[in-house]
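ESCALATION

Customer reports they have been waiting on this structure for their group meeting. Please prioritize. Original submission:
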Amino acid sequence: MEEEFQRIARLPPYVFERVNQLKAQSRAAGNDIIDFGMGNPDLPTPPHIVEKLVETVRNPRTHRYSASKGIVGLRRAQARYYERRFGVKLNPDTEVIATLGSKEGFANMAQAITNPGDVFLVPNPTYPIHPFGFIISGATIRHLPLSDDTDFMEVLDKAVAHSHPKPKALVLNFPANPTAQIVDLSFYKEVVRYAKKHDIILLSDLAYAEIYFDENARPPSILQVEGARDVAVEFTSLSKTFSMPGWRVGFAVGNENLIRALTRIKSYLDYGAFTPIQVAAVTALDSPDSVIQEIRDTYKERRDTVVDVFARAGWHVPAPAATMFAWAKIPPIFGDMKSLEFSTLLLQEAHVAVSPGIGFGEYGDGHVRIALVENEQRVRQAGRNLKRFIEDYSREKKSA
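Update from on-call: job pushed to the front of the queue and completed.
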């Protein structure tokens, strides 16, 4: 049976799958690929969290179905975290839901709130689930083209004025993946005021709340703004904060009506994460700040090494203030080369993998994302490979 399914047809070829295929082919040929592509933390989960998992899994009662909303203890732990970190008090029964990572939570929120013909405002470039969660749900997307010198509110106002019907929701993602852009609380205050004026839902992705490198760049929560809960839900994850990507533990918190809608959708789709994982996640959330600081310090050291080593090789990479990513323009010597072409050439000739910017939206082309997931020794090897690659390309270009 050959049939084209409409929702699948709306999805373009996954750019990162093309890069992954090239990496697999190169490795099969015996090449050592230094991989800055996928944002897949390589650091081990802190031992005390793993020990709690092992302890809990030995109890056969925890092997039964769990709760799609998350066990009570986990929702209470998330509420404690928000009060401790942001000074925000949440009701764990009505304003908190556990998700299978923030990605699943975001996608299912899209399913819960999307009606046929709805318009959603999404930054571009951005993490793919932000637009495609809504596209899969049948919505129409209006992109907000963003760069370092963009006036966000100006772009937003223009998009709202030219959207018919008026937009239902706006996606926010700060610190941003892939660009690492950060904002302060005054930005959120302005956005909340605007959203209330125009009756727009705010969906804030705060997955990188704890990966920052300067106290002045400490990311706030949109829920710190008075009245934000009237219009906003925020998504967080333990994946990067505690190096738990494979555990699939995230949260949505905020507006009761939106949390209720997500809870209803999830009740039909899953029984929540394995209970021992949820119990261990409580231990993670109640960890002392020193646990997070150790992970944060590692990413800072890697960031500094990447910036220094790549600069010595002839590639300027701006130092991100937050996230586990650097967002860099393609080196000028490669001219008008597109990001997928450059990433492919870099992989084939230098055996260094990065994520092409086009994978995060058309306004990301001309850039690549570099994930800080290789240790210092590997970064320095990448620098040596990169230096040879740039020098060889420069000679070939001059002789052409």
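Sent to customer with the following note: The two ends are 51 Å apart (CA to CA).
Escalation resolved.
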